[in-house]
User: What shape does this take?
Amino acid sequence: MTDPLKDMRKGILHAVGEFAEASLQTREFVQGQTPVPVSGKVLFPADYQALVDASLDGWLTAGRFTTAFQRALAKYVGARSAVFVNSGSSANLVALSALTSPKLHKRALKPGDEVLTVAMGFPTTVNPIIQNGLRPVVVDINLGTYDAIPEMLREAVGPKTRAIMMAHTLGNPFDLATVQELCKEHGLWLVEDSCDALGSTYDGKRTGSFGDTATASFYPAHHITTGEGGAVFVKSPLVRKQVESFRDWGRDCYCETGHDNTCLKRFEWQLGELPEGYDHKYIYGHIGYNLKATDMQAALGLSQLTRLDEFVARRRANFAHLESRLKDVEGLILPVATPNSEPSWFGFPITLDPALDVNREALLRFLDARLIGTRLMFAGNIMKQPAYREVDFRVVGNLTNTDTVMRRSFWVGVYPGLTTPMLDFIADSIIEFIEG
Assistant: This one.
């Protein structure tokens, strides 16, 4: 006997697939008329079907797709487990906040503790340090890799240093050998911001698998998308509980959404100054947030994840094409992969040599007029940003290269939606401006 609801569902999903197939048809590229985005989502009919399939469940918060997505993510990265959240920035906030939990006892981060990082990056790599009352300690970066200078990290470790929190810039892994050595030698936590680096490897291991906590972003600009969305990867079950608590209002209860009494003593707890037997679902061990994502987002992520290796290969091929076209252009400092790494490039960064008589903003306006998308290297020197002028940074050495990036660097796209004619138009346009 057939199930009429299942048959209806199958028909709906088939129709969705046909609609997506028609709507995703690509158009001919015309130089100067067709936009060449710096980043973007790449969707397939199966992605549309996954979104609708999850919506037909009527279970709009975390559910079966979230459970499957978290497991698949952890397996792909090589982490013990993954926790799905509503953005990569939220992932960074939760990943560091979890390490302040009193349940980590002597290792818990406390206000005034120092966290090593860099000033050249995206704000939400540094923000959680400040938001948790910790002190950011910044070092300069290398031009080319755009990651922290390893020797400066060594010099930066002080008596109050308790953690390192840095991003793999534009998908290029930072020197994990040095960072892991410092963490082991000094007992530091490592928070690995891998939001721009899903699929990158260092010594054959995927980024996101090295940190005590690590993060990923699934914003449409990133390697796969869930619309808004992100994840925290963790090694320790104890730390995972704190990650989930900070994500879920700060509650002490660790039941999955839709489940009760996982601990089998829901009405037997006595914590804080609450009366004995207070419902564990309403006991709060942390001052947390609501940073959960939906099952529809997870369903899209699960579908996109099946394409990730294809996306990574395409990004690397696009990067190699731009590199081959621009490598002989005088005055351009091109990106360099960190030794022992194979980046899953998020973008193609370019620094205009300070000796080159070219104005960056003029070049960017020239590219923009041709509908070629560009981006700056995030905040440049974050200490120069208006929001951070009163922040108590500790600076180790000078930030010469960071300031050079702030004034002379930008990046163009390598995402899988870019075609060879688009990449050639990017390269031709840069060369025309530089040589002209």
